[in-house]
Amino acid sequence: MSGGVPSRSSGTARPGRMRRILSGPRPEAVPVLVGRACALVGVLDIAAGVFPRFRHSRMHAIAEVLPGALGPFAAALSLSTGVLLLLLAHGLKRGKRRAWRAAVALLPAGAVAQFTYRHSLVGTLISLALLAPLLRHRDQFNALPDPRSRWRALANFVLMSAGSLLLGLLIVSVHGEHIIGDPSLADRITHVIYGLFGFEGPVDYEGDTSWTVAFSLGALGLLTAVTTIYLAFRPEHPAAQLTEEDEARLRALLDKHGRRDSLGHFALRRDKAVVFSPSGKAAVTYRVVSGVMLASGDPIGDVEAWPGAIERFMDEAKAHSWTPAVMGCSETGGEVWTRETGLDALELGDEAVVDVADFSLAGRAMRNVRQMVKRIERAGYETRVRRVRDLGEAELERIRQAADDWRGTDTERGFSMALGRVGDPADGDCLIATAHKQDEHPGPYGDLKAILHFVPWGTDGVSLDLMRRDRSADPGMNELLIVAALQAAPKLGIARVSLNFAMFRAALARGEKIGAGPVLRAWRGLLVFLSRWFQIESLYKFNAKFQPRWEPRFVVYRASADLPRIGFAAMQAEGFVTLALPLPRYLRRRRLATPRPCAHATTAERDVRAACPRPPRGRRPGRSA
Question: Which of 129, 175, 277, 499 has a CB 3.0–4.6 Å from the CB of 305, allowing a cystine?
């Protein structure tokens, strides 16, 4: 009797599996599947256009019936179509509407060409088979365009030109048996460059090979020109930036709830965007980098309203098909994010927090710091710790210029724990600690030798923003100014000071202890090795000098497969990786004095902005130089 139950169960399961197979893939999986198919077809089409032997192989007997492979005579068309399909593949995977439109136009054209020129019914059916899920599941391709500018046209021109040059050199070289003579590498490169512009180069071929190479090179050049012109003249969608109104609302939230998170004030970076909860009592700030929607720290505002702001954040990510991620949230923030969204969390590192009441230079643990500070003071250095509002405009300007000139890199580093400006009148509560020394021959900034800038953390705390010093100053300037800030804190009503964030601090600390296992020791060894390029171990050891308490910080992510992409986007946001062209400073694009809101705001978000009460709008002070 019991043996009959499985029989009935398996009998009912089999029709269910058949129905799933006949119904096709899940709608949400269609963009990825179609994108992968387009990428595969694009690679095959490029191979068919570049390699002569591929056009006569068994693989091409299959590949030539796919979209884009319009016959052996159309190597140039196959090559250009393959490049287009590769360009569309990433957009299709992300469900981009414009990529869908281009694919819907390209696939029927391929089907018509297959039937008209080759009379291939199989090729036509394959084109239509790829088109069918695009039309059936068109509601899965509604993602809005990413923020962009016309500088993308210049980047496209450089990348496409480099790719066309390499592909063209390959095309010229693979027809070696038909080349007349033995042209040098310089002659081949010259032939490629001429061919991209539609002219005949110095390399000669036997038979019709010359026409095949010429058409292929011309197709690459035309494709580079067309895509660049399209990107240059398409409507510009400015990157989302913080508006005056958004900044005023965020400051109002920080006045009420800023004490909860030491990273709260960094939400006021003006190169971030913001989404508010329906009640307007909470907000999440973010920046989009390489398709990753990066939030930093915890949501701003009332904890009870966090879920509403998080929901808006996820809606915005879904509308644009961005990968959602949060960098550096607290344990409470991580719990709320994971509970409300189903995302996962991973400990990223620890934030060093010093309680002013417990800080003292006395004791053996502080011996090194104490000796360093005393030595620098004996060398004639003095310190000053003041609020930004207590400094004159002339001194603020000098500090701003010094901080900019003493920066060690061409790009400003920092995103999650950096404000991106110094001395703005709107940030009057910020703290500036400076070191001074009179020299026989003063430098361009007089006696100014080092700067530390802190942002408010509620009403009784500050969080370290940046550390800059004159390279000619004595070592230990940062230790000197941190000690000075901690000693002056009680007079300024400051009870807590947040220092640098130490990535993977727990692994470094546990890995150097007796009894650490081989895996932990190997992980620590890798971190120490990476510290040659990134400040991992050095920041941990620097922070540890001041005997802080460690507050864990987390990264929130959707899937483990997204972590490499999120990590790369975070490195871009923090300024460790720069993909922009190295233009001279006078050619770099200046930021708008009044930033435009992102053109991609969802309808729900616009409704929220219209419905939520706003603080009185006032004049925002100008930005620092």
Answer: 277
Cα distances (Å, whole numbers) of residue 238 to 150, 151, 517: 10, 11, 50
Longest pairwise C-alpha distance within the chain = 103
Q: What is the DSSP letter of 422?
A: S
Residue type, 82: G
Quick: pLDDT tens for 120-129. Answer: 566 567 777 7
- The Cα–Cα gap between 129 and 136 comes to 11
Q: How far apart, in Å, are the Cα atoms of 84 and each of 79, 81, 93, 225, 392?
A: 9, 5, 15, 13, 58
pLDDT digits (tens, 9 = 90+) for 342-391: 999 999 889 999 999 999 999 898 999 999 999 999 998 999 999 999 99
**Tens of pLDDT, residues 182-201:** 888 888 888 888 888 878 88
User: 84: Cβ–Cβ under 8 A, 6 or more apart, which residues?
Assistant: 42, 102, 106, 223
pTM score > 0.85 for this model?
no
Spatial distance between the Cα atoms of 591 and 424, rounded to a whole number of angstroms: 16
**Amino acid at the residue 100:** W
Query: Residue 284: how many CB atoms within 10 A of its CB?
Result: 30
SS (H, E, C) 142-180: CECCCCECCHHHHHHHHHHHHHHHHHHHHHHHHCHHHEC
Structure tokens at 308: 């509403």
Residue 422 backbone zone (phi > 0: left; psi -120 to 50: alpha; other: beta): beta
Q: Which two tokens stand for residue 338?
A: 């994971």
- 332, 552 contact by CB (below 8 A): no
- 317 Cβ contact list (under 8 Å, min separation 6): 293, 323, 324
Burial of 495 by CB count in 10 Å (0-12 exposed, 13-18 middle, 19+ buried)? middle
Separation CA 275–CA 267 (nearest Å): 12
Spatial CB neighbours of 249, under 8 Å, sequence gap ≥ 6: 276, 280, 283, 612, 614, 615
